[in-house]
Amino acid sequence: MNARSSAVAVLLILAVAALVRGAWLTADPPVRRAVGIVWHDEGAWVHNARNQALWGTWRTDAWNPVFVAPVFTALEYASFEAFGVGTWQARVVPAVSGFVAVIALMIGLHVLAGQRAALVGGLLLATNYGFVMWNRAALMESTMAAGLAIAWMAWTLAERRAAWALVAGLAAVAAFFTKAAAAFFVAALAIDIAIVLWTWWRRDARGVPLPEAEAPGLRPPQMEPRGFSPGETRDLPRAALWAMAGLIVGAAIVAAGFVLPHWTDYQFYNWQMSVTRKPSYAPGAFLDRATWLPLVQGLFSRMPVELIGGLAGLIVLVAGWRTARPGERLLVTWVLIGLAELVVHDSGNERRYVMFIPAIIALASLLFTRSGGLIAAARHRSRLTSLAVLALLVPVAYVAIGSLLRPLLLDQIEGGVFRTAVRLSAAGALLLTTLAAWRGSRLLDRASRRPIPVGIVSVAVAGAVAWNVVQWTDWARTRSTLNHDASVALGRLLPAGTLVQGKLANGLALENRIRPIFVGNAFGNWADRLHRDDARYILTYDLPRLGYESSDGSGLIEGILDRYPGWRVVATFPVDETRLEDRAALVDKFPDSSPAHARD
After folding, report:
1. Which long-range contacts (CB under 8 A, 24 or more apart) does 4-7 make?
2. How far apart are CA 575 and CA 28, in angstroms?
3. Between β-strands 568-575 and 515-517, what pairing exists: parallel, antiparallel or unpaired?
4. What is residue 296's DSSP assignment?
5. What DSSP element (H or E) covers 517?
6. CA 247: distance to chain centroid?
7. Whether the Cβ atoms of residue 40 and residue 47 lie closer than 8 Å to each other
8. For residue 110, what are the contacts with CB-CB under 8 A and spacing of at least 6?
9. Which helix (H) or strand (E) holds 118?
10. C-alpha to C-alpha distance for 70 and 255, rounded to whole angstroms
11. Class for domain 483-588, per CATH?
12. Nearest 5°: CA angle at 469, between 468 and 471?
């Protein structure tokens, strides 16, 4: 493909990426082909940005997610200041974040494997249905994923110019302060920094020079002098130091300017609320979270080609670890350490898997477009590497098989019965690993001689893109704006500044000027929830059930309503959250003479 054709292809990919993320930004997230988005969380997470834009103060009550996501909050505030407060204005931030992630992925892939890999990866990420839909929700995951993609891109560019590694460190810190779940990536980057410095120290001690930086493109392993990987140039030790500087300087700036001045709040939101309050750390809980990885979320199931290609690419890179480049190693640790973090903390929430999509697609793109053998020849592999591949194959195969089985066993899984899915996935993973141990040498030797045929890659990529387009088109054809319309209707009903209790009040606050009072389970405005007589109204669901937005069995909303026995529903609004009929109810704690439902 010549330069002009390549430029046209890139522009088309970016145009598609912008279209699917930016069209109909006030439309509801999908419920028929749901990807785990809870729409009423949007207003809660932009609460502080909305406060500052409307009232000139960041804090108006005891719910302050700015201490969890300061970078996201700052970006949302910038959007509100530029365009006004509203639904599409809130969603512009993640939409642009997803678009930036596509660009970053393409640049990184171009550095590692050339033009074809960049186009394949860009097309797959631009159209990935799950990633696109999360890019359309005013939640932190897309912005965090963009930070990770930028950090990875900069780390690959550091092979050519060491100073890019400073950007990698700063972007990793920004991702962490967008959402603390990005801590795993900081660890992954630190590990690769250590690998680069350790390799440099050992070779420097032996007096072996590092090769100069090369032009783009991979040399085959047999051409690497004395076992050097293609990316180990003289710039890499300097790049490692630049990356360390980025991590340290970025963390120091945020710590001095934000964390330390607000330490009590920061510690509460990021430790007591996010760590000690949520997970169990009993041995059985770790096992549960590990076995749930492919089952409790449908994001992986919706991208079978990318998932199988990405996990296979991960195994290929581990098998060729000695000749893997820093950018390739970082993709491997991005996935593995990230999954380990979920096992430790919380694997039960679909939003936690969004951060893996760019890495999985990058790994798949590298596998699909390799010009030489998939795996380094046998003389480049140690026995330890072969054992590591077999050990890693068990959990990787479990995730792949479980993701493919999930749609077939969805009724059981949604009913909380995981036994069949876990057993079948585990049996399949063990069988595949046994076959690999038995016939592995022959398979590896064959893989070291030939790449995946271009025809197979073309069909697989075309099929993946077509499936993504089908899902997005189905959503677009059946889209609604019930949640946006309910927020507008609420604004017509209540004057600006009206205090309204309930998590759903935050969810329905973007198109009006009410003052929502978020009430969570033991956080937010929990302590005085039964004594807020200054807040006349409560917003909650009454369909599919009363208080649906709270945890099952918590009785949170019911407990508040019991405090006001004369409460009355004075307005209802159709909303779109589940596949059932959903309805928000405005409750008057001190009803006047107006009849119930008079203002539906």
Report:
1. 6/115, 6/119
2. 9
3. unpaired
4. S
5. strand 515-517
6. 21
7. no
8. 117, 118, 216
9. helix 115-127
10. 12
11. alpha beta
12. 65
Q: Strands 537-543 and 582-588, how do they pair?
A: antiparallel
| CA pair distance 548, 552, nearest whole angstrom | 7
Q: Give one DSSP letter per residue of 268-290, joined into a string.
A: IIIIIIIIISS---SHHHHHHHH
Of 24, 71, 18, 28, give the one whose Cα is nearest residue 48. Answer: 71
Phi first, then psi: give them for residue 519, nearest 5 degrees. Answer: -125, 110
Question: How far from chain centre, in Å, is Cα 554?
Answer: 28
> DSSP state, 587?
E
Which residues are within 8 A (CB) of 415 and not within 5 positions of it... i.e. 6 or more apart?
Answer: none
Return the H-helix or E-strand segment holding 541: strand 537-543
Beta bridge partners of 575: 582
Taken in order 432, 434, 437, 443, is the CA torsion positive or negative? negative
Render the burial of 131-148: b for 16+ CB within 10 Å, e for the rest.
bbbbbbbbbbbbbbbbbb
| 250-267 per-residue burial string, b: 16 or more CB within 10 A, e: under 16 | bbeebeeebbeebeeebe
Q: How many CB atoms lie within 10 A of CB 471?
A: 21
Predicted confidence (pLDDT) per residue in 203-233, tens digit: 766 665 554 444 333 333 333 333 344 444 5
Domain-wise residue ranges, the chain = 3-32+64-476, 483-588
Q: Which residue has the tokens 């669901």?
A: 541
Please tell me what DSSP assigns to residue 209: P
Calculate ∠ Cα 269-270-271, nearest 5°. 100
Q: Report pLDDT for 296.
A: 93
Count the neighbouring beta carbons within 10 Å of the beta carbon of residue 414: 9
Residue 584: DSSP 8-state: E
pTM of the full structure? 0.92
What pLDDT does 174 receive? 98
Angle between helices 326-344 and 283-292 (to 10 degrees): 130
Strands (E), 13-110: none
Q: How many CB atoms lie within 10 A of CB 346?
A: 16
Residues 6+ apart with CB under 8 A from 518: 44, 47, 61, 62, 63, 502, 503, 505, 506, 524, 525
**DSSP H or E stretch at residue 574:** strand 568-575
Q: What is the CA radius of gyration of the chain?
A: 25
d(CA 513, CA 525): 19
What is the Cα–Cα distance from 106 to 396, expressed in whole angstroms? 25
| Two structure tokens written together for 64 | 């302050």
Q: Indicate the residue type of 458.
A: S
Rounded distance between C-alpha atoms, residue 292 and residue 364, angstroms: 23
**555 phi-psi bin (left φ>0, alpha ψ -120 to 50, beta other):** left
Average pLDDT, stretch 521-544? 94
At 89, the amino acid letter reads Q
Single out the residue of 225, 226, 227, 342 nearest to residue 288, CA to CA.
342
**For residue range 120-176, what is the model confidence (pLDDT) as tens digits?**
999 999 999 999 999 999 999 999 999 999 999 999 999 999 999 999 999 999 999
Q: 373 is written with which tokens?
A: 């053998």
In this structure, are residues 127 and 472 in contact, taking their beta carbons and an 8 Å threshold? yes
Nearest to 185 by CA among 154, 226, 158, 159: 154
Nearest to 368 by CA among 108, 118, 2, 99: 118
